[in-house]
């Protein structure tokens, strides 16, 4: 892995919603297989495709489905959405390590073609600018995989993030740190800052693939697809993108079409 620095059809349904195609599986495993088809179609059309890689629990069924496919990912490039600041190299919860163990190794990607933001440099702003430049030099992202936070964050773009924001260092909202504490030995170990692709960077991808599972994500999904578009709920920006696929399990899709509950 390189760092970029300045130095089953019968159980699934599909609907069109605004600019988004929504695929719904019965459970996370089925949703993962549906999401995998999006990536497999892209790689079949372009074996040297550039994929934006998300971490967290939402894309895990997708990566598991890709790992058992017979596709050749050896020419695929990957760019991670984000990386924590303050964790040592090799920490199991650093996103460089998560991407290696969950994506690069299982799928057989070339580590030289898989990139994460540089968290250890002396000039974070320059390193972030270099990361955006590396994405452009690779030809841009063909499919950007996204999860969604309960507060609407995508990547680590917390509420209030500008829609034209670029890769940069950001503080993590306390709610996000609490949500991510399950991955660490204690809540105190969750970093307070990270480097994240900006919403503007994300929006430049040719296709967005947003994945969500579980009842606890249902309201966030509803707001992202049906709520007002605004910086207070960053994921709402997907309503403005011309090519979006949303893959949900039944629980995460449960509130689509509802009026907001009091």
Automatic annotation (TrEMBL):
Q: In the Enzyme Commission scheme, what number(s) does this protein have? A: 3.5.99.6
**One GO process term, biological-process aspect:** N-acetylglucosamine catabolic process
Q: Which UniProt keywords apply?
A: Carbohydrate metabolism, Hydrolase
Cite the Pfam families for this sequence. Glucosamine_iso (PF01182)
This entry carries the following GO cellular component terms, namely: cytoplasm
Drop me one GO molecular function for this one: glucosamine-6-phosphate deaminase activity
Q: What class of enzyme is it?
A: hydrolase
Q: Does the keyword Nucleotide-binding apply?
A: no
UniProt keyword annotation of Membrane present: no
Q: Where is the Glucosamine/galactosamine-6-phosphate isomerase domain?
A: 31-241
Can you tell which superkingdom this protein's organism belongs to? Bacteria
Protein's name in the database = Glucosamine-6-phosphate deaminase
Organism of this sequence: Arthrobacter rhombi
């Amino acid at each position: 892995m390189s760092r970029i620095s300045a130095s089953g059809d019968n159980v699934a349904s599909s609907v069109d919603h605004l600019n988004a195609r929504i695929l719904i599986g019965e459970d996370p495993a089925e949703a993962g297989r549906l999401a995998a088809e999006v990536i497999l179609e892209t790689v079949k059309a372009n074996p040297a495709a550039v994929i934006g890689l998300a971490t967290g629990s939402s894309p895990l069924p997708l990566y598991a489905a890709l790992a058992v496919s017979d596709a050749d990912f050896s020419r695929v490039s990957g760019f991670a959405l984000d990386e924590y600041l303050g964790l040592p190299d090799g920490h199991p919860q650093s996103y460089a390590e998560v991407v290696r163990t969950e994506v690069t190794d299982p799928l057989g990607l070339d580590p030289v073609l898989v990139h994460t933001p540089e968290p250890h440099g002396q000039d974070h702003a320059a390193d972030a600018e270099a990361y955006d430049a590396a994405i452009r030099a690779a030809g841009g992202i063909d499919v950007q995989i996204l999860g969604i936070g309960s507060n609407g964050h995508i990547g680590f773009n917390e509420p209030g993030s500008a829609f034209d924001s670029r890769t940069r260092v950001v503080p993590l909202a306390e709610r996000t740190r609490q949500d991510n504490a399950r991955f660490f030995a204690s809540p105190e170990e969750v970093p307070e800052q990270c480097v994240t692709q900006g919403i503007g960077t994300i929006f430049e991808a040719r296709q967005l693939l947003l994945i969500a599972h579980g009842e606890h994500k249902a309201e966030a999904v509803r707001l992202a697809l049906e709520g007002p578009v605004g910086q207070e709920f960053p994921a709402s920006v997907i309503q403005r993108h011309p090519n979006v696929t949303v893959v949900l399990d039944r629980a995460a899709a449960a509130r689509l079409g509802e009026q907001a509950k009091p």
